[in-house]
Amino acid sequence: RINGERLWSSLMELAQIGATAKGGVKRLALTDLDKQGRDLVVSWGKQAGMSITIDQIGNVFMRRAGRNSALPPVMSGSHIDTQPTGGKFDGNYGVLAALEVVRTLNDHHIETEAPIEVAFWTNEEGSRFVPVMMGSGVFCGAFTLETAYAAKDTEGKTVGDELERIGYKGTEVPGQHPIGAYFETHIEQGPVLEDADKVIGVVPGVLGLSWYDCVVTGMEAHAGPTPMGLRKDALQVATGIMQEVVNIGNRYPPYGRGTVGMVQVFPNSRNVIPGEVKFSIDLRNVSSELLDTMHQEILAFVEQTSNNSGLHISVERVSYYPPCPFHSDCVDAVRNATATLGCSTMDVVSGAGHDAIYTARLAPSGMIFVPCKDGISHNEIEDAKPEHLAAGCNVLLHAMLAKAQR
Amino acid sequence: RINGERLWSSLMELAQIGATAKGGVKRLALTDLDKQGRDLVVSWGKQAGMSITIDQIGNVFMRRAGRNSALPPVMSGSHIDTQPTGGKFDGNYGVLAALEVVRTLNDHHIETEAPIEVAFWTNEEGSRFVPVMMGSGVFCGAFTLETAYAAKDTEGKTVGDELERIGYKGTEVPGQHPIGAYFETHIEQGPVLEDADKVIGVVPGVLGLSWYDCVVTGMEAHAGPTPMGLRKDALQVATGIMQEVVNIGNRYPPYGRGTVGMVQVFPNSRNVIPGEVKFSIDLRNVSSELLDTMHQEILAFVEQTSNNSGLHISVERVSYYPPCPFHSDCVDAVRNATATLGCSTMDVVSGAGHDAIYTARLAPSGMIFVPCKDGISHNEIEDAKPEHLAAGCNVLLHAMLAKAQR
Ligand SMILES: NC(=O)NCCC(=O)O
Ligand SMILES: NC(=O)NCCC(=O)O
Hints:
- Chains A, B: GO terms for molecular function: hydrolase activity.
- Chains A, B: This is Zn-dependent hydrolase.
- Chains A, B: It comes from Undibacterium aquatile.
- 2 copies of one chain form a homodimer.
- Chain A has 12 helices and 17 strands.
- The first copy, chain A, has helices spanning 4-15, 32-47, 92-107, 134-139, 145-150, 159-166, 192-196, 234-251, 288-309, 328-341, 355-359, 386-404, and strands spanning 51-54, 60-64, 74-78, 116-120, 181-187, 200-203, 205-206, 208-217, 221-222, 257-259, 263-266, 272-273, 276-285, 312-321, 324-325, 345-347, 365-370.
- The first copy, chain A, is elongated and about 80 Å long.
- Chain A is 36% helix and 21% strand.
- By secondary structure, chain A is of the alpha+beta class.
- In chain A, strands 1-2-4-3-5-17-6-16 form an 8-stranded mixed sheet. In chain A, strands 8, 10, 11, 13 and 14 form a 5-stranded antiparallel sheet that branches. In chain A, strands 7-15 form a two-stranded antiparallel ribbon.
- Chains A and B meet through strand 9, helix 8, strand 10, strand 12 and strand 13 of A and strand 9, helix 8, strand 10, strand 12 and strand 13 of B.
- The structure holds N-(aminocarbonyl)-beta-alanine (URP) (2 copies).
- One N-(aminocarbonyl)-beta-alanine binds at residues 132, 189, 352-354 of chain B.
């Protein structure tokens, strides 16, 4: 069993770096605060006897030797960067749970056949630099190191320069680092576990995701003198599409998701008929087939809406992550661990992307979810219970031990 | 007949004050530029032999004596302040057309029984200071001088101080100034005349107007991990109401109008289900009964939507102007003038509010519309044809002469 108090106090200590007045954390990727956070975690890793490797995109791997150093390590981790108004647990829990596993093995002088590694990946959040999940994305070859280095924040500072500045531009070529299996513990970021009153979510995979930008172009005109029949009201046309986005999500339960999160209306004046409306579309589902069906349906609906209204409508896909089923070896390892420990459990497909969807392209991967209060994350009021965090960490310990052969 | 070239060249000269690079005018109420514009128009008035009176809210009255100075004047005017990205014609045309009438009477040594007055009202646009139609509103007692004086711009400067500063805080008590009849020429600000290929709009009245602020409160949550059934999506609920606003406008032709012009979504992030949506509602119609029916329908729809969705929705009326039918004497004077002059004409109910809706509370009032290009106003590309502007001014001349008794 892991030491839940030690895990909790490490979480609280790390959360001091970038702590906000409202009880959250603001520790954006590659800032001075990120450097402080990284330094603290690395110092803990060294205290636990681990050796440190940093790759060229700043991913950090902390290694506890196994009996057989030729075997690829069983790895666990997540990220320590946060949203601008982020919480104490998102990402940080996954890293410190992995560290707690190593501390526990040390306490009990347990050797493993394969090495054990604790990883944290650069810029998972994507708040300061896009794309999201940058470190794991470069690691698995989803995009190049050059692309990542060139990414700029709003002040024009680049990832390459900022990595150099904070001293975390390592030398290892990303993706050269071997992985035998990868586990990631994370708060659920949704309400399902809490709603079902379960402690552990076994994560069979992650929903695929399509993001779009949609622009409806009408004709700006005065709301008073323009009769209804002579209008080209971009908002009236846009709201029809926004509703269909949600309808499409509803049409493919249980994993279909359809969300419009961002809307901009021009000129956005009380007595002017909107001339242009821009909005985002977020579609998700568990299989490529279902996600593709949803994709076709929104495109067809937009075309039909454009024909019916006579307004120009553009819809462009700006991101796509295919659904990511996790490897049965890892999913089973997690499931068996919950059985061994007697945890209350259910399967929860991850609705949000995580570094594990990228590691899954290179090695068997799996995830463990614990409940978070009201399903809230990416928010300073994000909260989780110490006993749930400890339970997730115990499941991680047993799953890793199963893969690393005690 | 008036002198169309003189009218046009005065319009172009006034439009130099605050001219924008895109061919429009930016001359916000009570700025230095407004002072320059006022000074120019007043100098023209003096050159035309008129005496000047300024009231405490800065409304300017320029008087051409009649044979019988005891008779209340036949007045015409509008405003010379503009929107931040305004055009050359909105308001300015109404003032300079009235001035052109006086210049024409002078050219032809025509005396009238009643005095003739040219008026311009303070801060009609409401862009720098709210409420709109401030000068005429104070004049007719819709709100107090104190309320108007206290209105602040975004820098905290008040109407009272700015009137003083530019030298247009007069001494006459607003509303004390007698009016026998009031006419206002204006660009239509809509597409109806152009669409029907007519030159003069006889304006039987102005639509009543109800403005509302609506706020839908849901629950902000991550778009990925939150199943459709566990969402409180404020935008999905809001779009239903937005569509009903337009439906209500369509349900009461030909004068019903329903517009949502302004929308704010919180937190407005691509992968966050909106937790709050604020938007404006603009309903208009020609009679109090119809406007009240529309008012009841939107309130009922909002209540039903709140009950069905379980989300809290507030809707608050923030402005109301009752429908304003113009006095038949004035409408007939305009109609007869178009007949005398042989203009192509039609009735066009004004969809937008004008100073004339306030003068109408004190004296018989009427309006004359001329077409504007593509119905566009409140825009730097606002445009109108010299021959249409001249035609409207001729109609004004004849209507005023009919009321002032040549
Ligand atoms: N974990 C997480 O918030 N990922 C962001 C990308 C997404 O919206 O799934
Ligand atoms: N003329 C004009 O634009 N008035 C503004 C108030 C309205 O929206 O009717």
